[in-house]
Amino acid sequence: MTLTDIQKQIDATMEHVQKVLLYLEFSLKKIDAIPENFDVNDYDLLEVYESFTSRFARLSDIVATKLLRSLVLKDDPSFRGGFMDLLNQAEKLKLISDARTWWVVRSLRNKEAHDYTDDCLKMYFKSIKIHARFILDETKILLKKI
Predict the structure, then answer these.
(1) Which of 9, 34, 69, 99 gives 20 to 30 Å between its CA and that of 61?
(2) Domain holding 90: CATH number?
(3) Of 97, 35, 20, nearest to 66 (Cα)?
(4) HSE-CB of 73 using CA atoms within 13 angstroms
(5) What is the spatial distance between Cα 72 and Cα 110, in angstroms, rounded to a whole number?
């Protein structure tokens, strides 16, 4: 992949990231209006949370696997590391503030919420909410750097 190809991918990905960022912010506003002690048997609220977690996963995927990877490749076209290597390199390049927190984001994204008990499900949603704020902030900072 040439540097021109990498830059084209960065440009296209940035447009997509900006849209998905707005979608996640919209869902987060809805989630903020829901009390923490909500009834997990309220299917309307669960639908809102499921939309929120889906948007969380989508933004984290696009930023980490597409945008960060492209930016790291732009800096080092021979980069071939795994996901944690990518995060460490992105942190080294000051593209992200904390590779470990991005690793937690990735772990949360990989979890299947439907296997949890009601209490665990609430904890899972709470953790997603906290980390959604993190990736929103990180993504906005990243977009300003590019």
Answers:
(1) 34
(2) 1.20.120
(3) 20
(4) 20
(5) 23
Tally of CB atoms within 10 A around 69: 21
pLDDT in tens, 93-127: 999 999 999 999 999 998 865 566 677 888 899 99
Structural domains counted in the chain: 1
Whether the CB-CB separation of 10 and 135 falls below 8 Å is answered with no
Ramachandran assignment for 3, one of left (phi > 0), alpha (psi -120 to 50 degrees), beta (any other): alpha
Give pTM, 2 decimals.
0.92
Low-confidence ranges of the chain (pLDDT < 70): 112-117
Short-list 94, 109, 75, 108, CA closest to 142:
94
By residue range, what is the domain housing residue 56? 3-145
CA distances in angstroms from 72 to 20, 84, 127, listed in the order given: 21, 13, 28
Element counts in the chain: helices (H) and strands (E): 6, 0
Residue pair 72/66 in contact (Cβ under 8 Å)? The answer is no
Contacts of 104 (CB under 8 A, 6+ apart): 131
